[in-house]
Please model this.
Amino acid sequence: MALASAKKQSTHGLSVKDVNLNQGFHVIAGPCSVESAEQIHTAAAHLAGLGVRILRGGAFKPRTSPHSFQGLAEEGLRLLAQAAAKHGMLTVSEVMDTETIGLVGDYVDILQVGARNMQNFSLLKRLARQPKPVLLKRGMAATIEEFLHAADYVLEGNQRVILCERGVRSFDNLTRNMLDLAGVVLLRRMSALPVIVDLSHSTGRPDIVPALARACVALGAEGIMVEVHPDPEHALCDGAQAMPLHDAARMIADLEPWIELRRRLEPESLVAAGNGALE
Ligand code: PEP
Ligand code: MN
Model:
């Protein structure tokens, strides 16, 4: 199903079905937050050159402290859409509340529901009544069954749901959250929805992301999400987990033979699951 054509600066005419990176394994990448025109354009140009087809960037940020950078709001959405349009990419950005669904939907191709909102049932019900794909993140202490029930709220009216495992709270401080790869296997077994693995918010550290990306290919996930920043040290949000551009380039290049191996061993696994949200 083609996306409803987006207003303003969104990626006119491009549909999620045009996205077919690396024979079907999707890398969603970009900064945690859109910070400036220069930052998002630099990231987009570099990532597009690596074959990344979906650009991420937050404009409404769910920050733990009200004193932290909250995102550029509509200006951030506009910059994200402009940068993506320039390079023929699709966009994903978080929508935090029912009031801004229309605004975010005017600019982006895929609406993200963050971990903190996984059980915001009013938001989920309202997202069921709009046509754009919804990337639903697992809550930070949600069980797999709770996650799938949350997805059911959107599926009541909108079949284009993408599940995103992003780690759950744990006792170990070496990683930000605990990545649940068993959960990824269960999600794929228990539902027909595409499953994306957010390797940045789960680990909180870019050094172990390339190894986990290979695991995601082997597990049959539909893709990964990675925070990538042109200048992580000066990032306004989540700099510690941001992957620099050159590391992202190496990771994607190193991933290619693994994706190719999966394509040969399990050709059907690279046809994104179920509902066409990523096809
Ligand atoms: C994000 O993707 O920017 C984000 C805030 O992630 P999460 O909701 O998983 O914490
Ligand atoms: Mn982030």
Q: What stands out?
A: The chain has one domain: 31-62+69-270. Confidence is low (pLDDT under 50) at residues 1-23. Residues 59 and 76 are 5 Å apart (CA to CA).
